[in-house]
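ok here's the first one, seq then struct tokens
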Amino acid sequence: MNEQDLNWDDVRDLSRRVLAGEPFTLTAESRAILQRTGPQVGIPAADVERALQSEASAATLLTEVARRIHAGSHRLSRALSEATKRQEEGDMNGARQVLRDIVEDEVVPLYRDIAQIQLEALDED
């Protein structure tokens, strides 16, 4: 995946507009945004395509995509912070376990990959 593919600003912007009261409209642009970002946050492409069959289900998909981006980011940030804290305290096993837990539980592949990289870096020390 290249950097442009991982630009989630468009889905965040669309979600903010809808939350602010703008009606969701299933356009070629919103369809493309959801087709690209759905799988990036762990939603199978087939589920994305099913959701794009109606405006109501597409709006629900938008909400879920935005939720996964937001919630996953917070989970990853908390896990990295906790792992760093434990590492600084000399608890390397605890730091590794925090990262193992997020690798195992995280549904957003990018966030899972980041945690895996951090775990591998700890294992090299």
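and now the second one, same deal
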Amino acid sequence: MLAIRIAKAHKTTSCVASTLLGKILPLDLRVRETAELHKIKRGMPLDIHLDRPIESKVSMFNLPSPPKRKPLSFKDVYKEEDLKELGRDIPQLFTDGSKIEGKVGAAVVCYENGREKFNSKFKLDNHCSVFHAELAAILRAVDLTIRKKTV
């Protein structure tokens, strides 16, 4: 069997053990994965995760026209000195996302005038990556800022 050769195992090694040692996805799971990917690419409904909304593409025609969009102003901060230049009266938002031991979470903290104004921490599904967590934290920071009218 191919998995036994890849794992460089003895010929009496079981199929399950050889796929695990060879770091190969078992054939039945590979077929299921390919079928799910085919459904996703074709826009078919999925059987899994029906309790959660699934992301979909948004047409550019549904977005407001560029002149009607609100401009965003920001300044990159790389050092402590850059942060001090901004002044203490400007809200400072800090975001972080992490994945530890298969658990994914993110947090947002807002400081204004040197005091913590609000914070939010939340858990994401375990299948999310750390990049999802980082982006979700940034999105939450923007949502909280708009809702609380901080900026």
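notes on #2: The radius of gyration is 23 Å. Residues 73-148 form one domain.
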